[in-house]
Design a protein that fits this description.
Layout: E1 3-7, H1 11-23, E2 27-31, H2 36-45, E3 50-54, H3 62-71, E4 80-84, H4 89-97, E5 102-105, H5 110-122
Helix pairs in contact: 1-5
Length: 123
């Protein structure tokens, strides 16, 4: 099954998403976003098929993470889903231009998360 990295500063949100995805048979790598550098290091060292990232994180903003992935040859084509409690249309448009695969608004239901991940991996 596909391996998915979850980057969220909320341990509870990471655990919820991880549980929902493991229930669907996915392998999950939970990443605590202590810094952009550390997250990129984990993503380079542990190949994943999809990145699920929170948008608002103090030590590793989602937009910065998306930009860094798109500028990194090893991560450039990694599908990225952004999750946020806030729908900021301007930021969402910028990230779409950077090539995110999709957006989910918190709170996310387990079934909606599983469906979005499955659809993204199928693309």
């Amino acid at each position: 099954m596909p391996r998915i990295a979850i980057v969220d500063d909320s341990r509870l949100a990471r655990a919820f998403a991880a549980g929902a995805l493991r229930a669907q048979g996915h392998e999950v790598v939970e990443v605590e976003p202590t810094s952009l550098f550390e997250v990129l290091k984990v993503l380079r060292e542990t190949p994943v098929d999809l990145l699920l990232a929170d948008f608002l994180m103090p030590d590793c903003p989602g937009e910065s993470l998306v930009r860094a992935c798109r500028e990194d040859a090893a991560l450039r084509d990694l599908p990225i889903l952004i999750v946020s409690a806030h729908r900021d249309e301007a930021s969402l448009m910028r990230m779409k231009q950077m090539g995110i695969s999709g957006f989910l608004l918190k709170p996310v239901e387990a079934s909606a998360l599983a469906a979005k991940v499955t659809g993204t991996l199928a693309d």
